[in-house]
């Protein structure tokens, strides 16, 4: 039974398996053993050069001479000619003088259905020679012989010696002809997938085998495109940018197709009831999660004195993931969507309108939750696997897994768990990555039962790659000891590394360091917080000389870090939290160095000025007395007296005035004794 070539099959022909056919096997064997340059020669349309009635015959040549391999004579003229018109080599008089050309063998085996004889055809290229070469590429891709195209690219297109004065041959030798074939093939696949996706979930299930075949074709196509990147040195040139965009589009279509096949196999989860009654109720739940996260968020990193008007900001894990992946942002690669027609794979045009209007992911999520959650499973697949870069495939799989957890947790029917297990196995997601996505969802969920379940799963999730936001969220949700366990079990989040690894010069960001200090103080570990701050700043100081050298040589791309700024932030955080927890007396006993002392005392003075009724001012005096710096203690005492006098003149609360007077008397007695 004859097979059908890729071009015709993509146009709707029935897929006929004919690998066992002797003709097909013979053609494939010949295609594999053919030299890449000879493949170019086989693609050229040759006309008979025999002279007949004082003029050339001009018929299309379907055979090559065995004696010299030239396709120069038609079947009729070879019977009456003795030599080849091109090289004058004698034609064999015994045996078979000719053999069928590769293209004719492909047509007779049913692997190519249409013969490019006119000015143009459905492939859209006006050159018949190019269309014949594309037919060979179609066969190689269809039957898994991508190496044939690879060799053509490496041995012909990338060979600087492969040149010709003939315009047609020169065109076939250029890598552009391969790139144009890839674009045309991708376009055919997209339109066929568009037809399949439009069938509906019930009928799409019966197209799973055909979708699997297209997936294999896309993988082969992606490999061919990657091999074309070799000859380009300047990555900013127009050809390489266009090629990279084509590679990106092919990968996105492939990734989208794989998930669509999985969804079609499970009827797009229509048989599983969602834990949300409607999309409106789901979006309201997401909005409430955002509000709850904002309400429980701690004050931002302090700069000076805290006030009641400090802005509190917080984001959900799903927000961070989608923002990092660039969902909903203006797509710089308009070529991918407009020229390559990826929009035909989507179910709706909602995201296209968002892109034209310039609506960002965060504004949508904050305002109305339009972007997340998507209105259906199909919309979620289109959003996640078509919008974001193909390089973020692991992140996209995790986001879709988060979506599945959000859609079905905590459903009473255990069928959804088996569906999720199948998704994890199908796409090679590790148990650790699966649990990590689940924990992120549970920490976003405002329900207390979700928080308890997340804490139970944390021991399996904690690793050196754990999201640094996890301890922060646990702290905000009144689980400081769980946050401390995460910090201690993870290799480097909140703990400075001292090993000889490649990450020695990488320290936690300031925001994560502030979280680590807060966690320790919430757990009552003041000394631990102090030692962490000291080790953190010491590590920054140790890498500063290296960054200075890199900066002087022009190799430092990020600039040096200001250790004094980060030290001030951490010491201020310790000071303010100790004041809130009445730990100032223990704090002043710690051995602060000169720089830390300056920040600490400035912070304590601000506290004493803000609330003279507290014991902060007296403890400042005690700080100097403990270190036998009596003169400085006396000067601070005088400054506090002035502050208290001003406060007493303005305050009409007799009870508070009495407290301040008692504090002033006791501190004066203490200063007089020393």
UniProtKB/TrEMBL annotation:
Q: Which residues form the RING-type domain?
A: 57-88
Q: Keywords assigned by UniProt?
A: Metal-binding, Nucleus, Zinc, Zinc-finger
Database matches in InterPro entries:
ELYS_dom, HOS1, Znf_RING, Znf_RING/FYVE/PHD
Which GO terms are recorded in the biological process aspect for this UniProt protein?
protein ubiquitination
Would you name any one GO CC term? nucleus
Keyword Glycoprotein belongs to the record: no
Where in or outside the cell it occurs: the entry states: Nucleus
Question: Which Gene3D superfamilies is this protein grouped with?
Answer: Zinc/RING finger domain, C3HC4 (zinc finger)
Q: Does this UniProt record's set of keywords contain Acetylation?
A: no
Gene Ontology MF term list: ubiquitin-protein transferase activity; zinc ion binding
Primary localisation category: nucleus
An example of a Pfam family matching this protein is ELYS
Q: What is this protein called?
A: RING-type domain-containing protein
